[in-house]
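re: the backbone from monday

yeah here it is again, tokenized this time
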């Protein structure tokens, strides 16, 4: 995958996005204990994403940008070594599992029981993710917004 200038089709974080996230982590730490916890969670996610293989890393970075834009009140943290985002009660709402974690052929965007995605007696809680596109970004945004509604 090659880097592109558009943030919706990029294969990873731009230098500006990386700088902004570091600045935000510093701001959160400056806010005190609760902010420091959120900053530590953000740093843990960024560190975990940095360890991924390039294709998984590119997907995880796009998922991170999309989730944090769609649901800024969710708290970033790692969960079983995966990037995840928790609600105010500390319950995981959405997570990203890279394909390399368990040697799967695709990465996954998944939702836990704290997500408000209920639809009758049967609904999907995980989605295979192989490539990022504007259509994928739109769908993930819709799912995350529904999950926190």
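seq for it, each position gets an aa:
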């Amino acid at each position: 995958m090659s880097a592109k200038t558009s943030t919706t089709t990029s294969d990873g974080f731009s230098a500006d996005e990386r700088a902004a996230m570091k600045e935000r982590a510093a701001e959160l730490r400056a806010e005190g204990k609760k902010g420091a916890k959120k900053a530590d969670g953000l740093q843990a996610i960024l560190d975990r994403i940095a360890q991924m293989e390039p294709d998984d890393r590119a997907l995880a970075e796009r998922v991170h940008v999309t989730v944090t834009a769609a649901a800024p009140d969710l708290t970033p943290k790692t969960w079983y070594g995966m990037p995840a985002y928790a609600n105010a009660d500390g319950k995981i709402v959405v997570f990203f599992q890279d394909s390399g974690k368990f040697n799967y052929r695709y990465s996954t965007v998944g939702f836990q029981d704290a997500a408000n995605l209920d639809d009758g007696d049967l609904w999907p809680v995980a989605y295979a993710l192989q490539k990022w596109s504007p259509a994928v970004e739109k769908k993930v945004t819709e799912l995350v917004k529904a999950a926190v509604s």
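The chain is about 45% helix and 15% strand. The two ends are 34 Å apart (CA to CA).
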